What we know:
Blueprint: H1 3-23, H2 33-45, H3 55-91, E1 97-100, E2 104-107, E3 113-119, E4 123-131, E5 137-146, E6 149-155, E7 163-173, E8 178-193, E9 199-202, E10 205-207, E11 212-216
Antiparallel strand pairs: 1-8, 1-11, 2-7, 3-6, 3-8, 4-5, 4-7, 7-8, 8-9, 9-10
Helix pairs in contact: 1-2, 1-3, 2-3
Amino acid sequence: MDENTLKGISKIDSALTSLTGTSSARSNEVVDKNEFITLLVTQLQNQDPLNPMANEEFAVQLAQFTQVEQLIGINEKLAAEQSAGDFSSMASYLGHEVILNSSVVEVENGEGGQVSFDLKEDAMAVTLQLVDSAGVVREEVNLGEMSAGKHSAELSDLTTHSGEFSVQVEAVSTIGAPFQTTANVSGIVSGYVPGPDPVLLVGDREIGTSEIQEVRVPGVS
Length: 221
């Protein structure tokens, strides 16, 4: 490979480096095939008439272009497959009950959504407490007698002000001994919003799959 060939390759490599160096400030853009062609045409237009690009050099740069185009095609295919995979994965949650790794509910207009909990033993009384950020119990919801196992309860017709509250479960066993258990926000997945960071819709709440602790078939304990 002669000196002119090496210089030609060096020129286009420098131009590519310049474009990719500025791409980080352009929302993750990359050099596409149109930009590559523009670079090649510009180089041909500005070459020295007394020292034109050799056939070998031109062939090398066309080979570089072919490699770039192939990489673009592969990336587009991978992106499409990833999108299809995300679509299928998110759609599989529809209609299922999800248990989140959070006990914080957002109350608005007397509605706080649904919470789930697991009683380790039968209880003659179960109470849900809504606790504010200062640790003050703002409201209690009496659920009455409940058997051991998994349960869900709707927080509706609440009288406390709107805002975020942590839910605690206080229970009394059949022999009168108090015990506590953990409450988790839960609900039925009614839809999802696709995109770079897709989210599931649970009531009025948007959640990511990383927030899900458990998935259940509604009505099956």
